[in-house]
Amino acid sequence: MNTFDSIFRQAAARKGGAQALEALLPDPKHSAKSAARLGRLQDSDILAEMTKCVFRSGFVWKIIENKWPGFEAAFHNFDVTRCAMLSDEELEQLQENTDIVRHGKKILSVRRNAQYVLDVREEFGGYGAFLQQWPEQDFVELWAHLQKHGDRLGGQTGRYFLRFIGRDTPMLSEDVVKALVQLGVVDKAPTSKKALLAVQDAFSRWREESQRPYCQISRVLACSVP
Q1: Do residues 157 and 57 lie in contact, with contact meaning Cβ atoms separated by under 8 Å?
Q2: Cα–Cα distance between 139 and 196 in angstroms, integer?
Q3: 194-217: per-residue pLDDT in tens?
Q4: How far apart (Å, rounded) are the C-alpha atoms in residues 33 and 15?
Q5: ∠ Cα 51 45 29 (to 5°)
């Protein structure tokens, strides 16, 4: 497997030098909260970020941002208990609400994800505490947990949620996957458990070697390919 240093040099050569590449990398101080801060997150903030990521998927992000005050009003500022108790009639009424994006299945996901957050709260005391105790290096199982127990939180949507909520995690963008294929980590976009674990092993090695967070490693990989 290529060393991270060699990947970094290749990316730097494409981006005009090491200093130019460093300027493109996310600042881990802002892209990832400490474990202690994750533990203090409010469940309403968790549900809000889940909802925002679900509605952004396949949609113009700017539209969701512009309509966000309407989402907050429609979903009671994402009070988890209140959202978990939304009736079928209320969900149908929300499909007529022009202050939000009227996508029936995504609207339904708010109730389902509110119940998911409540289930996690019952076991861990809060969703932030759940994230706090999850091993940092085991991101594949965390992705699987989101896909299995959440609603519409699989794939990149779940990864965006984790990144935006402050949990450091790799992103498998088209360019990152292209780099992983070129490096021989996988032979195509990873979907099987075996392939995802190979990705996790590679990222763990590069993190140990470079002492960089996953968010920076992802960006370097993306910058290393034409």
Answers
A1: yes
A2: 10
A3: 999 999 999 999 999 999 999 999
A4: 28
A5: 110
CA torsion sign, 139 to 140 to 145 to 151?
A: positive
- Closest alpha carbon to 47 in 161, 135, 141, 143: 161
Phi/psi for 15 (5° steps) reads: -105, 10
Q: What structural domains and CATH numbers belong to the chain?
A: 4-32+170-223 (no CATH), 36-165 (1.10.340.30)
Q: pTM of the predicted model, to two decimals? A: 0.93
Residue type, 58: G
> In whole angstroms, what is the distance from residue 30 CA to residue 36 CA?
15
The predicted pLDDT at position 27 comes to: 81
Note the pLDDT tens digit of each residue in 16-25.
Answer: 999 999 999 9
What pLDDT does 39 receive?
82
Nearest residue to 161 (alpha-carbon basis) of 127, 204, 118, 186 = 127
| CB neighbours of residue 157 within 10 Å | 19
Q: Report the pLDDT value the prediction gives residue 29, as an integer from 0 to 100.
A: 60
